[in-house]
Amino acid sequence: MNKYAQMISQLKTPEVIKQLTYIYGQREGMLVSQTARYTRMLKRHEEIFNNSENLLMISAPGRTEIGGNHTDHNRGKVLAAAVNLDTLAAVTPRNDSIVNIHSEGYAPMCVDLNELDAVEAEKGTTAALVRGVASKLKEEGYAIGGFDAVMTSTVRGGSGLSSSAAVEVLLCAIFDELYNGGNALDAKQRARISQYAENVYFGKPCGMLDQMASSLGGLAYMDFKEDDPQLQAVSYDFAAKGYALVVVNTGGSHDDLTDDYAAVPAEMRAVANFFGESSLRRVLPENFMKGIPQLRKALDFPHADRAILRAAHYFAENRRVTEQVDALKNDDLQAFFQLIIASGRSSYCYLQNIFARSERQELSLGLMLGEQKLSGIGAWRVHGGGFAGTTLNFVPLKNLDSFVSEMEAVFGERSCNIIDIRPVGPACVKL
Predict the structure, then answer these.
(1) Are residues 136 and 173 in the same domain?
(2) 424 domain-assigned
């Protein structure tokens, strides 16, 4: 039996089963599907690279944003969680600076780590993330080196569950495990390095919410007011209370909407700049409200009123995150759900990130259907960055089958993801 076959057989040992159950949860069929997935990656690695020396299986999760829609980039507050959808790699080190990645559904890619400057033509690609993560790690004194990897992901690109953050955090974990002993980076360092790669190399001006949620794991309150974010674990079992979290992919993709995303933090900062501040977190809400007449005259760009509305969303959303955390601590689900619904309405009316162009309103349809099916019994809102993609729904377990069936009748088979909160960020399963 060769080494690959031995590792595949180890997937059925009690030790590995315990690891997989901890990472992915205990939902029916989970263990079968993950064992098959890990087996597939090991076989692909053997087929493509045929080198099992020091092979590791490394996973990094997607994330769900529960509260704090578009606040992190202006040093706001967020309630978010890692989820049991992930990007998974079977990876082995190389003795040179070449990174080879064969990712399911994509063309193979190769990056030479001797060349770490940002490449304009690579923006929006995994190659940019590899180069960006490696560049920042090297700049901060960490070791980097080449590797051969096969990857697969259940975090669909453009789905609103942050596929890019999962890849970035995974890359940090790969370099850490292969070349820095496996525990050199903490959650904040991984998130900061990942955000740098996305901002500077990938070309998306995001905050740190996605990367921190993926890197940290679990359900957490995050406050980005200072350079060193304040993090607080939040313990709450929605399933034990009779609710499932369902992310509905309405079919729109984020892939061509970078300009729409970029306008949100830019417009919020324009309002902050009027008050002599670099972010809205430094502006007092009462001063903002008093200053609206002057703001309308001072903001000399086409969407001045939209910028003011987006700033109003920011201040209210920051307050709602604190109230959401308090509601969960007090086990007041109805108050929590009302805050979720209020957050979604604010995103719709004031933040205006539900659709980018009038002909693309699938997300609007998803929210309307969520309200029709869950009003009075659950909660619904836009999920993540918006403009396209997904809705987040809190669905009573007794209504789960009918909710999924009816939503998939509209948006297609497998458009619903029933998600569990993953207790850890990146994880290495050693076989």
Answers:
(1) yes
(2) no
